[in-house]
Write a structure and sequence with these properties.
With 348 residues, this protein is mainly β. The protein has 6 helices and 24 strands. It has 2 domains: 152 residues, Tachylectin-2, Chain A, CATH 2.115.10.20; 144 residues, Glycosyl hydrolase domain, family 43 (Tachylectin-2, Chain A), CATH 2.115.10.
Length: 348
């Protein structure tokens, strides 16, 4: 593959998205509705303990739910995992929500995790895998945080994790956006997101393992997929789909930062997709799926986050469309009905 041809800047990818939309590929987007009133005390309690001088009422008015997974079906009910935190804080919890009449409500006495940015992977060697980003204070640097990705597994229901919160694997500190999927040969494909050195601000890497028990040891050994990101841009994987031909449909995000005005920098995050062939280790060119401008305007968590879309999960429909779940501006969750981004790779 010609890597120079495969790689394109975000601005060029955005121009390509506009061309596709001019030909009819326009998304239908809305925001998810969350009702937390019934469990407001349980939701605010962890933050009252951690945010000095704040009361339940103050925190309750500032609670946001964003960066969701796509819905998880258990016993005919729809659930999703969302990142929950006060607008002015990075102290986050991941909580389980159940859909009732188009509204998402917290599951009473459901599991709560001290995590950010949840993900859920079904059917990996007899397990379901759930995880997120664990953030903690860095004792070596006052006022700084450090983070790692942690992984849990369960057999039937995510509620099994309520009484067994120990992860079975974790990444090195400083790594997010690690995702996995079982391949048609029974092995497990793992995508990681190293930073620094050759990886720059963040590039996608790949490795295969024989068992979930091998995950933690394998993560640092993943090899960067070449030709995807320019040095001043970065990206990562959010969800994986095994396609009918054995290739992998990759849902992710790509980002860059610009100076919007003197002293004011803005981050642009886009939902994106590409195909990866585990046999040849080749990736298709990246294509954008949605932007923040597709959704109703929201006051972002911080001014520099107003152009952020963070992919959560994608449901492929039988009519050739897909429903994409995303975080918006680090304050809300949304969904977009788009053209199925993986159909073209199954037809190749």
């Amino acid at each position: 593959m010609n890597l120079d041809k495969a790689r394109a800047r975000c601005t060029d990818l955005l121009a390509d998205l506009h061309v596709r939309r001019s030909k009819g590929e326009r998304p239908s987007c809305d925001l998810l509705v969350f009702d937390i009133e019934g469990e407001i005390h349980a939701i605010t309690a962890p933050f009252v303990e951690e945010i000095e001088g704040q009361k339940h009422e103050t925190i309750a008015a500032e609670i946001t739910v964003y960066n969701p997974t796509k819905p998880i079906i258990e016993d005919g009910k729809q659930y999703l995992l969302g990142r929950v935190e006060p607008r002015g804080s990075e102290l986050s919890r991941v909580m389980l929500f159940e859909e009732t009449g188009g509204v998402w409500k917290p599951v009473k006495n459901g599991p709560v995790f001290r995590l950010q940015d949840p993900f859920h992977v079904p059917n990996v060697q007899g397990y379901h895998v759930f995880g997120g980003v664990h953030v903690e204070k860095d004792p070596q640097f006052a006022g700084s945080l450090k983070w790692k990705t942690v992984f849990y597994r369960y057999r039937r229901s995510i509620t099994e994790l309520k009484n067994d919160p120990s992860p079975f694997a974790e990444s090195p500190y400083g790594m997010k956006d690690i995702r996995l999927i079982e391949l048609d040969n029974g092995r497990i494909a793992v995508f990681t997101r190293p930073q620094g050195g050759e990886a720059g601000r963040g590039k996608v890497a790949y490795i295969e393992i024989a068992s979930l028990d091998d995950l933690q040891e394998a993560i640092p050994r993943a090899e960067i997929i070449p030709g995807q990101f320019y040095e001043d841009e970065w990206g990562g994987v959010n969800e994986l789909h095994l396609l009918s031909n054995g290739k992998i449909g990759v849902l992710g995000h790509i980002a860059y930062e610009e100076e919007a005005s003197p002293g004011v920098r803005v981050r642009h995050y886009f939902a994106m997709a590409f195909m990866f062939d585990p046999r040849t280790k080749q990736a298709s060119p990246i294509k954008l799926l949605t932007t923040a401008d597709d959704f109703p305007y929201l006051v972002p968590k911080k001014p520099e986050l107003g152009k952020v879309i963070f992919s959560g999960g994608l449901i492929r429909m039988e009519d050739g469309t897909a429903i994409l779940y995303v975080g918006v501006g680090d304050v809300a969750a949304g969904r977009a009905r788009i053209s199925d981004p993986f159909l073209e790779y199954e037809r190749q």
